[in-house]
Design goal:
By secondary structure, the protein is of the alpha/beta class. The protein folds into three domains: 156 residues, P-loop containing nucleotide triphosphate hydrolases (Rossmann fold), CATH 3.40.50.300; 180 residues, Rossmann fold, CATH 3.40.50.300; 79 residues, 2-Layer Sandwich (GMP Synthetase, Chain A, domain 3), CATH 3.30.300. It is built from twelve helices and 15 strands. The strands form three sheets. It has a six-stranded mixed sheet with strand order 2-3-1-4-5-6, with helices on both faces. A six-stranded mixed sheet has the order 8-9-7-10-11-12, with helices on both faces. Helix 9 links the parallel strand 11 and strand 12. Helix 7 packs parallel to helix 8 and helix 11 packs across helix 12. The radius of gyration is 25 Å and the shape is globular. InterPro entries: G_ENGA, GTP-bd, GTPase_Der, KH_dom-like, KH_dom-like_a/b, P-loop_NTPase, Small_GTP-bd.
Length: 447
């Protein structure tokens, strides 16, 4: 599983800037204003060949007992509990503060692996300003600049040391056909994930109870159906580590994110009696970003009336519209209803994710699509799409070569995607289209 790194520190020290640097995005709002981030924010990070999950947190005040700062402190404590390593961010230019001492005292009590990142240290790598941060008792401060990227690579290399397992050469040589299909069952707490897996297995393999948070870790269960081996992953509705902050703990996003990243196919389970929540949409968005094949199953379908079914269908169309390609099935895990078609949809989605697309067929489909509808003209330029080939599987990637491809609109890319999907009958898998400009050999002259 991907290691998890939490960014912790007092307000306005540059945690969100570092988060955006690690995720290569602008997902976290950054401004010269203290206390902008309040909730935990999850993202995928990559430095070189290392992949990890990074958590951005709000300004941390461990001793706050009421108000919004108390809620922010609870969010940060949960992020620390979920993390494999913690990066404690301090502001070199502002200097050491009493709040930094309070945070350091809390982090030392958790027993987590903590690295001290001295941010905003442009040109101050060997400066005397770093010396005062040894008082925190965290270790040697590492001079970094989140805004300019200085020292960030070294910081992450140290944070991931010992957390990234080395790939086994023997395992790498195993053909994908000989490996079991990893099927992750994801959803909110008490949606029926464990009940569904128990029904598939025909035994009470997992504890299923009418209380949110019965499963506390990602459980891997081997399973075989019609000669095909599967590895069923029952994801945790709650976090695995840390103290219990509430009587019923909050849903831990990080365990679900790790399970999705390791899966081949993801079954998104939705409770018909509860409808589609923000958490369902968040998980669905991460599935799409991860490129995993996905099937949506509405569980407890027998427990709702006709009006509730219509409202549920409407909410799915609006909140999960970006997963229109995913099969949608209505099931009842407890009554064993709809499980046959569900397996057919899972198998079809996995087959689509590994679909092989010959280059001549792709090029012909591209030419037919352009002949039917050309790309929109951008000024005096009209993009010319010449040929296409497959660039990868799981998810399928189609690489299109041409001229002035930077002017191809997202609407036209969706049009091409629909043409490819229709021909290859792709269901349950994202399809990614990459546009590459053809190189002009006359633009580079020999000196």
């Amino acid at each position: 599983m991907k290691p998890v790194i939490a960014l912790v520190g007092r307000p306005n020290v540059g945690k969100s800037t570092l988060f955006n640097r690690l995720t290569r995005s602008r997902d976290a709002i950054v401004a010269d204003y203290a206390g902008l981030t309040r909730d935990r924010h999850y993202g995928d990070g990559r430095v070189g060949t290392y992949e990890f999950i990074v958590i951005d947190t709000g300004g941390f005040e461990p001793d706050s007992s009421e108000g919004i700062y108390h809620e922010m402190a609870k969010q940060t404590c949960q992020a620390v509990a979920e993390a494999d390593a913690v990066i404690f961010v301090v502001d070199v230019r502002a200097g050491l503060s009493a709040q930094d001492h309070d945070i350091a005292r809390y982090l030392r009590s958790t027993g987590k692996r903590v690295l001290l990142a001295a941010n905003k240290a442009e040109g101050m790598k060997d400066g005397p300003q770093l010396a005062e941060f040894f008082e925190l008792g965290i270790g040697e401060p590492i001079a970094v600049s989140s805004a300019h990227g200085q020292g960030v690579r070294s910081l992450i290399d140290m944070a991931l040391e010992g957390l990234v397992p080395e790939e086994d050469e023997d395992e790498a040589e195993v053909d994908d056909a000989d490996r079991p299909v990893r099927l992750a069952v994801c959803g909110r707490p008490n949606v029926g994930k464990s009940t569904l897996i128990n029904t598939w297995l025909g035994e009470e393999r997992l504890v299923a109870f009418d209380q949110a948070g019965t499963t506390r870790d990602a459980i891997h269960v081997p399973f075989e159906r019609d000669g095909q081996r599967y590895e069923l992953i029952d994801t945790a509705g709650l976090r695995r580590k840390g103290r219990v902050f509430e009587s019923i703990e909050k849903f831990s996003v990080v365990k679900t994110l790790q399970a999705i990243a390791d899966a081949n196919v993801v079954l998104l389970l939705i409770d018909a009696t509860e409808g589609v929540s923000d958490q369902d949409a968040h998980i669905a968005g991460y599935i799409l970003d991860s490129g995993r094949a996905v099937v949506i199953a509405i569980n407890k379908w027998d427990a709702v009336d006709e009006y509730q079914r219509q409202m549920l269908q409407r909410s799915i169309e609006t909140r999960l519209s970006f997963l229109k390609f995913a099969p949608l099935l209505n099931i009842s895990a407890r009554r064993r209803q709809g499980l046959g078609p569900l397996w057919q949809a899972i198998e079809a989605s996995w087959a689509s994710a590994r679909c092989k697309m010959p280059t001549p067929v792709l090029t012909r489909l591209l030419q037919e699509a352009v002949a039917f509808q050309q790309p929109k003209r951008a000024g005096s330029f009209r993009p010319k799409l010449r040929y296409a080939h497959q660039g990868g599987q799981n998810p399928p990637v189609i690489v299109i070569h041409g001229n002035a491809v930077e002017h191809v609109t997202d609407v036209y890319k969706r049009y091409l995607e629909s043409r490819f999907r229709e021909h290859f009958k792709l269901v349950g898998t994202p399809l990614r289209i990459e546009l590459r400009a053809s190189r002009n050999p006359f633009t580079e002259k020999d000196s």
